[in-house]
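Notebook, bench 3.
Goal today: get a predicted structure for Cytochrome C from Polaribacter atrinae so we can plan the truncation constructs. The sequence was checked against the plasmid map this morning, with no discrepancies at the termini. Length recorded as 151 residues. Pasting the sequence as submitted so the record is complete.
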Amino acid sequence: MPDMYVSVPYDVNGANGLNGEPVNSKPVAGTIPRGGHPAYDIPNTNEGYELSKTVVTNPLETTEESLANGKAMYDIYCASCHGKKGDGNGVLSQRDKFSGIPNYKDRDINTGSIYHVIMHGKNLMGSHASQTTYTERWQIVQYVEKLRSEL
């Protein structure tokens, strides 16, 4: 049984797969991936960032529970740079590890652009999409919006 030791490689995007049958590994347009949330397909470009400001909206209702979890996630992933108040004065900024971290109040941002930056990152900030779930990202957005209103 040599196939048990050396597997036959198949090109998942190739024209032919097992027994010469066509392979279609790409999702069908309009379908929702496992997990039940639509894919975020706005590109990581300046144009995509601007587009996110106009077309991306938060699907979650803002509740005390949602804000509490958003705060918990913010404290884990965001506060070290952006500060507990969103003023750009986090511990890494205070220790001169990073400079120029923006104050949320001074930025032309909204719900869509905040989500876009969490998904793709911007400038020195990397993407946090792989560390957080779909719901957690939206809860962080809600909490950042709350911080902006308090600055």
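The mean pLDDT is 85. The radius of gyration is 20 Å.
Flagging this for group meeting.
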